[in-house]
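Memo to structure team: turn this sequence into structure tokens by end of day. - J.P.
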Amino acid sequence: MMGMAVPYESTGRTKQKARTRGALIEAAREFLSGGVTPTVEQAADAAHVSRTTAYRYFPNQRALIVATFPEVAAASLLPDDAPRDDPAARLDAVVDALTRQLVEHEPELRAQLRLSLESVDGERAELPFRTGRAIGWIEEALAPLRGRLSEQALRRLVLAIRSTVGIEALVWLTDIAALSREEAVDLMRWSARALLGSALREDA
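Reply from structure team:
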């Protein structure tokens, strides 16, 4: 379509440009791990990339921070040997995988949360942080409950579990409740099991 902008890294010498972009993102992640939200200039200097070149990839700090979002391409977090008819075991497996991701990528996820809080509606909707992929993973874990719970009850359960397992919960549990990372993860896992148990008791 005429007038549509083509990303700089998508034209010419794409492999080299992908390496440069990756170096800038990795440099930004290192800053985030140290508690610093980097500017494009800081990431460029750390990655040994000229500032002019860096701005071709990331026109501003927000674009750079958005790009640090951890890419998890998996369509499913269930292991290959996950039981087909045991929602509790399936949920445990998915929540275990989710909480490992939270701890591993905490600095980047905190940065995404900060962007979400500071963005207006249109900007917030474009954040990869808000694509709902965790909801999809939890829905898959609880698939055996389809037909047993109403669609409304199942959706409520999925959203309730997501609200207790995520970077938002990790921030509150560690920063406000002063739990260790290990204690916070244990509590998130317990909360997910408790919500499932409550839903099943209501159904019974």
